[in-house]
Amino acid sequence: VQLQASGGGLVQAGGSLRLSCAASGRTFSRYDMAWFRQAPGKERKLVAAISWSGGSTYYADSVKGRFTISRDNAKNTMYLQMNSLKPEDTAVYYCAAEPGQGLGVRIYEYHNWGQGTLVTVSS
Predict the structure, then answer these.
(1) Beta strands 117-122 and 9-12, pairing class
(2) Residue 109 in contact with residue 90, Cβ under 8 Å?
(3) Strands 67-72 and 77-82
(4) C-alpha span between 81 and 83 (Å, rounded)
(5) Which residues contact residue 31 at a Cβ distance below 8 angstroms, ignoring those fewer than 6 apart?
(6) Average pLDDT, 10 consecutive residues per value, the chain (123 residues)
(7) pLDDT at residue 101, rounded to an integer
(8) Which of 18, 49, 105, 118 is the most buried (most CB within 10 A)?
(9) What DSSP assignment string belongs to 74-101?
(10) Which pLDDT value is given to residue 114?
(11) In this structure, is the dihedral angle defined by the CA atoms of residues 75, 78, 84 and 90, taken in order, positive or negative?
């Protein structure tokens, strides 16, 4: 599966953005999906993950209550709705996919990656 992330940009603190991850291939619905982010000089970390069916989700504590992950298998697309953005959310956001075998929450569990999209939150 090939992944293409989009939707990043510059937003003021308290604002919102919606990221999209479009996938190619006919087996998108069989993949668990995730968003990771990497701030300058820091390691890449999981933000949120969603199972192949959309029935299970996982959020990092830092984004719970502010971010929502979702997917539309008919459109081969995953989303990340980000509300109440903070300067510390500034990072390059990456989407990732892995055949569904139990929702992964660790970076090494994902082997299919899209290019990143930059989110900058100004104070």
Answers:
(1) parallel
(2) no
(3) antiparallel
(4) 7
(5) 1, 23, 52, 97, 98, 99, 100, 112
(6) 96 98 89 96 97 95 98 96 98 95 90 96 96
(7) 80
(8) 49
(9) TTTEEEEEE-S--GGG-EEEEEEEEESS
(10) 95
(11) negative
